[in-house]
UniProtKB/TrEMBL annotation:
<keyword id="KW-0689">Ribosomal protein</keyword>
<protein>
    <recommendedName>
        <fullName>Large ribosomal subunit protein uL29m</fullName>
    </recommendedName>
</protein>
<comment type="similarity">
    <text>Belongs to the universal ribosomal protein uL29 family.</text>
</comment>
<keyword id="KW-0496">Mitochondrion</keyword>
<dbReference type="InterPro" id="IPR010729">
    <property type="entry name" value="Ribosomal_uL29_mit"/>
</dbReference>
<keyword id="KW-0687">Ribonucleoprotein</keyword>
<dbReference type="GO" id="GO:0003735">
    <property type="term" value="F:structural constituent of ribosome"/>
</dbReference>
<dbReference type="InterPro" id="IPR038340">
    <property type="entry name" value="MRP-L47_sf"/>
</dbReference>
<dbReference type="Pfam" id="PF06984">
    <property type="entry name" value="MRP-L47"/>
</dbReference>
<dbReference type="GO" id="GO:0005762">
    <property type="term" value="C:mitochondrial large ribosomal subunit"/>
</dbReference>
<dbReference type="GO" id="GO:0032543">
    <property type="term" value="P:mitochondrial translation"/>
</dbReference>
Length: 283
């Protein structure tokens, strides 16, 4: 058996570069060597993909939104405006940081003033949303005391109105669903049906039927038998045409001779909601 003793010289000799190998000059890092995808999320922090906007592009000429103006906006408008303000502030904060690194640069003042006004708008949006949240909670507390009376009065007004196929009445129904029964305008995949939701489905479904059944000649379906029939009416539009379509579906449903018991109402309505969401996703 032979034993080899390695020395530093021998080890180093193995790493020597052959004289025939030509060394290439190093590639200096430049901005041209960096390729960024056009849809990269960080572009959201840049205005039209510019490093810093010119002062003329951010010259402050407007004002912040007033609380009175924001109170007239819908939930969707307020959330959309908040998102726009947030994106603009992200761009401004990055640009302000760049000017801050340059010391007392007077150019950056225009950016700061614009950022302050946008921040005022966002603060006022939060104020309006807080007002609405308090109003909703107060209405829900009052409803616990006088809820049945309120629903009865709403029903009488709806059934005796000259016409209910108007945007005004559609909005009233939508607000009633959300404020009293917690039924949102849009449902997401994680939504869970509860007894309050089911009560809203039954109230709105019966209300639509009582309003239009005689007009479309479908009083023969009364009384409605279970939550499945009421949900069918609830899902259709609050119009004579919508109720007529729901009644046709109820005719088909009754051919199966199925009646949903009260103990299964939440489970059944949850299934209806999930089926609806799946059909919308498929579209």
């Amino acid at each position: 058996m032979s034993r080899h003793f390695h020395t530093t010289a021998l080890v180093a000799a193995r790493k020597r570069i052959p004289p025939t190998v030509k060394l290439r000059p190093p590639i200096l890092p430049t901005i041209n060597n960096i390729v960024v995808k056009e849809d990269h999320p960080l572009w959201q922090f840049f205005h039209n993909k510019k490093f810093v906007r010119d002062q003329s592009e951010v010259a402050f000429t407007g004002r912040a939104w007033s609380v009175q103006e924001l109170r007239r906006k819908s939930w969707e408008d307020l959330h959309g405006l908040w998102h726009v303000c947030l994106k603009e502030r992200n761009k401004l904060e990055r640009e302000i940081y760049i000017f801050r690194q340059q010391g007392d640069n007077p150019v950056g003042e225009d950016y700061r003033r614009l950022d302050d006004e946008i921040h005022k708008s966002m603060w006022r949006i939060k104020q309006v949303l807080t007002e609405r949240d308090h109003a909703l909670k107060n209405a829900q507390k009052e409803f616990k005391v006088n809820g049945d009376q309120y629903l009865q009065e709403f029903r009488e007004k709806y059934l005796t109105a000259e016409t209910v196929e108007t945007d005004d009445w559609y909005d009233k129904l939508e607000r009633l669903q959300q404020a009293i029964f917690g039924i949102p305008e849009l449902l997401d995949a994680d939504f869970k049906v509860d007894l309050r939701f089911v009560e809203g489905v039954k109230y709105i479904g019966q209300l639509k039927f009582d309003r239009f059944a005689e007009q479309i000649g479908r009083t023969d379906l009364a009384p409605l038998r279970d939550v499945a029939e009421l949900y069918t009416l609830f899902e259709e539009s609050a119009s004579a045409e919508g109720v007529a379509e729901a009644c046709a579906k109820i005719d088909e449903y009754r051919e199966n001779n199925i009646v949903i018991p009260a103990s299964k109402e939440v489970q059944v309505v949850q299934g209806f909601v999930e089926d609806k969401l799946e059909s919308l996703e498929a579209e």
